[in-house]
Design goal:
About 50% of the residues lie in helices and about 15% in strands. The termini are far apart. Helix 2 packs across helix 10, helix 6 packs across helix 11 and helix 7 packs antiparallel against helix 8. The chain contains eleven helices and nine strands. It has a six-stranded parallel beta sheet, sandwiched between helices. A three-stranded antiparallel beta sheet has the order 7-8-9. It is an alpha/beta fold and about 325 residues long. The chain folds into two domains: about 170 residues, NAD(P)-binding Rossmann-like Domain (Rossmann fold, 3-Layer(aba) Sandwich); about 120 residues, Lactate dehydrogenase/glycoside hydrolase, family 4, C-terminal (L-2-Hydroxyisocaproate Dehydrogenase, Chain A, domain 2, Alpha-Beta Complex), CATH 3.90.110.10. It binds 1,4-dihydronicotinamide adenine dinucleotide (NAI). The site of 1,4-dihydronicotinamide adenine dinucleotide has 32 residues, from helix 5. This is Malate dehydrogenase. Belongs to the LDH/MDH superfamily. MDH type 1 family. It catalyses: (S)-malate + NAD(+) = oxaloacetate + NADH + H(+). Homodimer.
């Protein structure tokens, strides 16, 4: 009891100092959706967020009214597409999260979402480039391999592109990998740092099964939800963790590292402008991009296959904006 009270008071003190020193407006576009709602809830509980701005084509003000009754210090405002709603939502934002878009149904690939989500993300990016060009943009809408290049092209066309401030949120893949590996190895999932753990202890069929489960983790959820959508709750946690990491880095913490899909030098010589790897975050966004490190032959095979697809996914996003500016 005493320990719980002490923890609560420490938490409150931290909450107070974080919000007193730093005012951070975070906006969520697509806030009334399956991801948007729990993501907004988690952000409402984050003491580093001082202002939460929620936009959706329908339902933003309702979600905002609900969350605004939670007794944490941040203010919450909801916006509709009418008049200057989107602009007002975006103005002054330090972080913009984009979970707007359609999710997968059983049998669909992420790429099947392209036609609908490409134009949604393009239009939201246009508004963001005008209203808050210096904000960090965190793209959740799939296919991330194409939607991130779409945002980059929109920003480039307006001369406001800063490659250090654009992120594809790929946190969920690593969150899943940590959990699945911990189940095989009987370790603590929150401490399972995937890219640096010693995987040589998992080999053969067990390794293949694990890799397959991680690669198709999203399908597991799509299938279990049976037409009602894709991962929303675990994705909300992953998105909130990424936003929290950016805020920690913005507020001066060093050594904050997250896996994320960014404009990256790693494979530019192969014509691939974006790649997901472990990225150190700083006050201006991307601070240092880590390479994939030493990998074995098996992993190299997976990487080669990935690079071929990735190049096409990126080009598809770039071509879309060229053809539909
Ligand atoms: P959902 O359909 O439940 O919610 C989407 C929300 O976006 C709805 O409230 C809808 O009204 C809103 N919306 C649609 N067009 C909009 C626009 N132009 N402006 C503002 N809001 C708009 O879908 P859910 O499950 O929340 O998924 C959202 C996206 O996230 C999908 O593209 C999905 O594939 C993706 N996703 C990404 C993951 C990742 O690891 N990056 C993991 C899981 C899903």
């Amino acid at each position: 009891m005493f320990a719980a009270r002490r923890t609560a008071s420490l938490f409150q003190k931290r909450a107070f100092s974080a919000s007193a020193i730093n005012a951070s407006k975070v906006s969520v576009l697509g806030a009334a959706g399956g991801i948007g709602q729990p993501l907004s809830l988690l952000l409402k509980l984050n003491p580093r967020v001082s202002e939460l701005a929620l936009y959706d084509i329908r339902g933003g003000p309702g979600v905002a009214a609900d969350l605004s009754h939670i007794n944490t210090n941040s203010t919450v405002t909801g916006y509709n597409p009418d008049a200057s709603g989107l602009r007002d939502c975006l103005e002054g934002s330090e972080i913009i999260l984009i979970p707007a878009g359609v999710p997968r149904k059983p049998g669909m690939t992420r790429d099947d979402l392209f036609n609908t989500n490409a134009s949604i993300v393009r239009d939201l990016a246009k508004a963001a480039a005008e209203a808050a060009p210096k904000a960090h943009v965190l793209v959740i809408a799939n296919p991330v391999n194409s939607t991130v290049p779409i945002v980059a092209e929109v920003y480039k066309a307006r001369n406001v592109y800063d490659p250090k401030r654009l992120f594809g949120v790929t946190t969920l893949d690593v969150v899943r990998a940590s959990r699945f590996i911990s189940q095989v190895q009987n370790t603590n999932p929150s401490g399972e740092a995937v890219p640096v753990s010693n995987h040589s202890s998992i080999a053969g069929q067990a390794r293949d099964a694990l890799v397959n489960r991680i690669q198709f983790g999203g399908d597991e959820v799509v299938k279990a939800k049976d037409g009602a959508g894709s991962a929303t709750l675990s994705m909300a946690m992953a998105g909130a963790r990424f936003a929290e990491s950016l805020l920690r880095a913005a507020q001066g913490e060093k050594g904050v590292i997250e896996p994320t899909f960014v404009d990256s030098p790693l494979y530019k010589d192969q014509g691939i402008d974006f790649f997901a790897s472990r990225v150190e975050l700083g006050p201006n966004g991307v601070e240092k991009i880590n390479s994939v490190g030493e990998i074995n032959e098996y992993e190299q095979g997976l990487l080669d296959a990935c690079l071929t697809d990735l190049k096409k996914n990126i080009q598809k996003g770039v071509d879309f904006v060229k053809a539909n500016p």
